[in-house]
């Protein structure tokens, strides 16, 4: 008896083949190792008689270790699901709902935020605009009635404004970080 196919997060998407998870695990493993290595090379403050937990590389090293462990877990799941079996042609077939254009759009929005808005606009406004545009562009449907579009635009504006305010409050009041 075959194992039932895993359910996707979104109902309109089919699960990816296990080989994609294996490749993703390899990339994240490499990223995690690079983070741990870069953290290891950071100063330790030992020579300044500071506490061990104040070393600037400690938190990134912990993140890197977690990324490595999760990558190993993902690789083990992928191998268990048949990622190393030959003849899986689903890897090459174009899939509905997955788009390089959407990936490029997300990358462009992130770059516009990091390079174009941060430092030129107040941080809360840059964050609000970024979240607003991200929601609007990725939730826009061609066949949607104008009333629903107006509601979507208003909700994106509210979420963007709320996120901008929340991020600034959390970082300045809770973490005591000065934002650009």
Count of helical segments?
Answer: 5
Biggest sheet details: none
SSE order: HHHHH
Strand content: under 5%
Domain count: the total is: 2
- Radius of gyration, CA atoms, in whole angstroms: 22 Å
Q: Low-confidence runs (pLDDT<50, min 5 residues)?
A: none
Mean pLDDT: 83
- Characterize the overall form: flat
Oligomer: single chain
Number of strands: 0
Distance between the termini: 58 Å
- SSE-based structural type: mainly alpha
Helical content stands at: 55-70%
List keywords for this structure.
about 180 residues, about 60% helix
Task: Describe the model.
The protein has helices at 18-40, 58-80, 100-117, 123-139, 146-174. It is mainly alpha-helical and 180 residues long. It folds into 2 domains: 18-91; 100-174, no CATH class. The longest helix is centred in the last third of the chain and has 29 residues, at 146-174. It starts with 17 loop residues before the first helix and ends in a 6-residue tail after the last helix.
């Amino acid at each position: 008896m075959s194992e039932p196919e895993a359910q996707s997060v979104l109902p309109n998407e089919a699960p990816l083949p296990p080989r994609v998870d294996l490749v993703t695990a390899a990339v994240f493993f490499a990223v995690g190792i690079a983070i741990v290595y870069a953290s290891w090379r950071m100063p330790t403050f030992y020579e300044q008689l500071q506490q061990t937990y104040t070393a600037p590389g400690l938190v990134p090293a912990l993140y890197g270790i977690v990324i490595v462990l999760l990558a190993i877990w993902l690789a083990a799941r992928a191998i268990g699901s048949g990622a190393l079996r030959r003849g899986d042609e689903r890897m090459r077939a174009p899939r509905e709902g997955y788009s390089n254009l959407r990936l490029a759009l997300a990358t462009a929005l992130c770059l516009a935020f990091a390079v174009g808005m941060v430092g030129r606009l107040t941080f809360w406004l840059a964050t609000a605009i970024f979240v607003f545009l991200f929601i609007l562009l990725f939730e826009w449907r061609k066949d949607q009635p104008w009333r629903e579009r107006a509601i979507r635009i208003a909700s994106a504006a509210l979420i963007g404004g709320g996120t901008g305010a929340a991020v600034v409050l959390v970082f300045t009041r809770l973490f005591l970080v000065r934002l650009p």
